[in-house]
Structure formats: structure tokens, C-alpha cells
Amino acid sequence: MNETKKIPVLERVMKKNEQIAAEVREQLHEKGIVTFNFMGSPGGGKTTLIEETIKRLQGKKRVAVIEGDLATTIDAERIRHYGVKVLQINTGSMCHLDIRLITQALEKIDLSDIDFLFIENVGNLVCPSSHDLGEDYRIILASVPEGPFKPKKYPVIYKEADAVIITKTDLLEYFPDFKVEILFQHAKEIQPEIKTFVVALKGEKIIIDDWITWIEQAKPKKR
Ligand code: MG
Ligand code: ZN
């Protein structure tokens, strides 16, 4: 019997996608580009973090952004405001980005003068984790209003993550049960290598420097 017939179709597709993602990563590395896949719940602050990061990298890193959303170009327009290249992908009913959408997007965006590629994934903590987009780093956002148990509830996405950022920490005073250290501890139980950051972008005290210091020196890496 033919061996290939025994492998389920979905498994074969996933394998093929992983190969394509590895090739994309290599092509991006040849251009000297480091790629970041930002993942998190809807409303968790992904677009705001990307905006504020772009602002602080100005004059140091040339950034391009791929924006994934079910519908609308609202977030892409926000990013465009900062004068960086932005490409919007509307996924329709699909709740994650995959490597096929990314390769289509990469054909439409000139990356010849780019250092960092940011991919904002569709707001979702489940299936984005099983899709390699050719990125070097996976960044998970956990916002304070979502509560401290996201790593416990969604361990799969944390398992593959390089960094977790707690966002909206200016709201901590309204969420006394949210303990930053507990969330970080849970995340490290799942992924001991995970880098941890806190960010506050709306309150009186802006906190973002540690994250910027880390991302500034991020080098291409193999997944
Ligand atoms: Mg967004
Ligand atoms: Zn999905």
C-alpha cells in the first residue's frame, strides 16, 4: 500500500505549511529582516503596543506591518499614521493568519529597506498558536482586564511564545486580584524560557522601556 495514503490530509497540509514557513523565514533572514508575530485576545492592546513600539524605534529600525483582522482596515489606518509600510489582510471568517496569507501579503509589500516586520495576528488565543508564519519571535499580550489566568486557560499559545507582555497595567488599581508575578509564574511553568514585560501606555506613568530595549536588540533566529 502507498505510504502517503496513510497520512491524514490535514497532517500533510500542516507539514507543507511548516516547510513554506521555514522557507519564508529564510528569505526574510537573507534580507536581514527580523519578524515578530503579535498574538492576544481582541481588545488586548496589540495595535496600541505596535503603534507605540514603532514610535520608539523611529530612526533606529525601519518597520513594516502586516495587519490581520476579520474585517475592516481600522487598525491598518492607525498604523499607517506613523509613516510605515502597512499591509492589511482581511481574513473574513478565518480566526487566524496562516502562511499562505502571509506569502500573498509579502508579494505586495516592498521589504528591501526594512529591518523589522511586525505581524498583528487576528485576536484569538487558540488556533494562531498552531500556525508558523515564518516569524522569529512570538509575542503574547495579556491585558489586565482579561484577568490573571490566561496562561493557565490557554497553555498551548504560551508554550510556543518567546515573550509575554502584560498590557494596560495602568488599570491594576481597579483589578486588585490581578497579580503580575502570578501570571508570569504561570507562563514560566508552561514555557521556562519566556521573556516577561509589563507595559502601561495610557495612564500617567508610561511603562514600555524594558520591552523596547529587548526588541531593539532582537536578532534573527530559527524556530
Ligand atoms: Mg488590533
Ligand atoms: Zn483559527
Topology summary:
Layout: H1 9-30, E1 34-40, H2 46-57, E2 63-69, H3 74-80, E3 85-90, H4 99-107, E4 116-120, E5 137-143, H5 150-153, H6 155-159, E6 163-167, H7 180-190, E7 195-198, H8 209-216
Bound molecules: magnesium ion and zinc ion.
Brief write-up:
The chain is α/β, with parallel strands linked by helices. The protein is 35% helix and 18% strand.
Q: What does this protein look like?
A:
It is globular, with a radius of gyration of 18 Å. It has helices spanning 9-30, 46-57, 74-80, 99-107, 150-153, 155-159, 180-190, 209-216; strands spanning 34-40, 63-69, 85-90, 116-120, 137-143, 163-167, 195-198. By secondary structure, the protein is an alpha/beta fold. A seven-stranded parallel beta sheet has the order 3-2-4-1-5-6-7, with helices on both faces. The protein has eight helices and seven strands; from the N terminus they run H-E-H-E-H-E-H-E-E-H-H-E-H-E-H. The longest helix has 22 residues, at 9-30. It has a single domain, classed as P-loop containing nucleotide triphosphate hydrolases (Rossmann fold), CATH 3.40.50.300. Bound molecules: magnesium ion and zinc ion (ZN). Magnesium ion (MG) is lined by residues 46-47, 75, 120.
